[in-house]
């Protein structure tokens, strides 16, 4: 059976995406990948802020414009773009009409920012009681910081992640660091998608929609996972440890003859195999290292011993030797090596789509693998306003005459 011809898991679901930048668009892209019809509403002439966040650009054949930024392309696949001016009565009226036809609305305006347009949850609920309305902000709809703007970098600092990321203050190059991608935005987008699906399931029973209030700060704290639990249970605030793990040893990077590798030992059996591979089986029975709790206690002694040995061979040598005996390990790849990796290639994590500016637009694939309703790549990230007439016809049944009267774009 050709599963590529099957409808997506969320086929028939309509999502109105009023969000921009990353957290909201990431959620919208995930829902779209799973089959939902996601309509992205953008400002005429400008669009999503990230359309201007380049270089690099996917070059446009029109030499008078820059083309699409790589940043925008990463989070807007499978969507249709509509340009509407929320500052005009006509634009607001069309958004309200679209909301009446939607199952889900995503937005990341400042708290109360859409109320002035009559597009807040309370107003739209009167028009569409079944609407799932998901608001994403930096600090949530309530609390003393509710009216503050929130950005990923800021939240990584305020939410504790940067207190855990980077080398220890006592080491060269020590100090707080942000994660190399806007991870809080990404995680918030994932939480938003989960919340939307849960709200839809409840709507199947109750017949009513609801408001979802998601805050980047809340998500960041929730995702501190074991580090937050370590503090709450142990009463001691964790500190930066570079690439080391607070609860497991050895679980970090180690130098080799030609670079670095990661060793991630998760149990005592793996540690014994590591010791044999390194030519030092006696470490596995040494009272200082025999159990993980003892290895954590004597971390500095053990790490120094392992480093002295690993520097004697190349990364590839050690990875091959350790994989043969079941010791989790691997190289630290740059992105060119990531996308050249045979495992990554076999999983189709690099895809190509046709785009108005390129016959072969490279994108990162969706990691979800579903046997009966697989992810489908239907639309490349849209150009600004590319689908305005198409969507207004599909969702609102507007005629060509009506579209011409309001000056809707001619792209079909």
Automatic annotation (TrEMBL):
Pfam families: CoA_transf_3. It comes from the Bacteria. InterPro entries: CoA-transferase_III_domain, CoA-Trfase_fam_III, CoA-Trfase_III_dom3_sf, CoA-Trfase_III_dom_1_sf. PANTHER family: SUCCINATE--HYDROXYMETHYLGLUTARATE COA-TRANSFERASE. This is CaiB/BaiF CoA-transferase family protein. Keywords: Transferase. It comes from Paraburkholderia agricolaris. Coiled coil: none annotated.
